[in-house]
Amino acid sequence: MKVATYNVNGVNGRLPVLLRWLEEEAPDIVCLQELKAPQERFPEQAIRDLGYDAIWHGQKSWNGVAILSRAGPLHETRRGLPGDAQDDHSRYIEAAVAGIIVGGLYLPNGNPRPGPKFDYKLRWFERLIAHAGELLGSGLPVMLAGDFNVMPTDLDVYKPERWLDDALFAPEVRDAYARLLEQGWTDALRARHPGETIYTFWDYFRNAYGRNAGLRIDHLLLSPALAGRLVDAQVDAHVRGWEKTSDHAPVWVELADEPRRRRTVRPKGRDPSETA
């Protein structure tokens, strides 16, 4: 099963790009962010024409998240994070599908820092950590996928010294991400590419994509029940080079149907038929 996350940066304005990628790569489940469309303007029919079920949480001009599935029906389990009844931003949607729980999220940018937007980002992150802990406590196979707006380490950002004052690279934000992982989540892309420079976002300015001056801010986190099923994790970076495309590229994981067995390594020089 192939599960992806993609910040489309405007689902209607970049619909041809989204549909082309869906048709070419055929992911089974997709989390979308930055729909930038009210609920009634989501392109439901175009998505369904490609064989996808869909649920979405829209918002005019800003934010907006969705989950698509061609792996079975989506059963929505949550819309919005718990912990703040006054928060009306469309940033989180969750569903049960194909035997797993998928939480699609768009974490706040937080700039400028310091300021109220940064404070909101930190509060939102704490709510995510609390909810993620409850999801892990269920013991179910869970994935958190989306645009986290955080570069976890120096390896995840081109020229990190230039980002020291940015909300995406702030110590408090990186610490929150680390605390999230410490609950027991596996960062799938980093698990498959532990020492590799690999990005998911390239700005539109200064030929960032051409120079590969990017950031890794789109993540797929796997609960222990899913981490053992991880086969591969990649970035479809070529999509960032398409005409009128998003500044993000799709990121995906491939999951086996069952946990992968680890090979037993026998001591060298010993016949396996020998007995003690």
Automatic annotation (TrEMBL):
Lineage of source species: Bacteria, Pseudomonadati, Pseudomonadota, Alphaproteobacteria, Sphingomonadales
Tree of life domain: Bacteria
One Pfam family, short name: Exo_endo_phos
PANTHER family xrefs: EXODEOXYRIBONUCLEASE III
PROSITE patterns: AP_NUCLEASE_F1_1, AP_NUCLEASE_F1_3, AP_NUCLEASE_F1_4
Listed cofactors: Mn(2+); Mg(2+)
Coiled-coil blocks: none
Keywords: Hydrolase, Magnesium, Metal-binding
GO molecular function: double-stranded DNA 3'-5' DNA exonuclease activity
UniProt-listed Enzyme Commission number(s): 3.1.11.2
InterPro entries referenced in this protein's UniProt entry, alphabetically: AP_endonuc_1, AP_endonuclease_F1_BS, AP_endonuclease_F1_CS, Endo/exonuclease/phosphatase, ExoIII-like
Name of this protein: Exodeoxyribonuclease III
Every Endonuclease/exonuclease/phosphatase domain range: 4-248
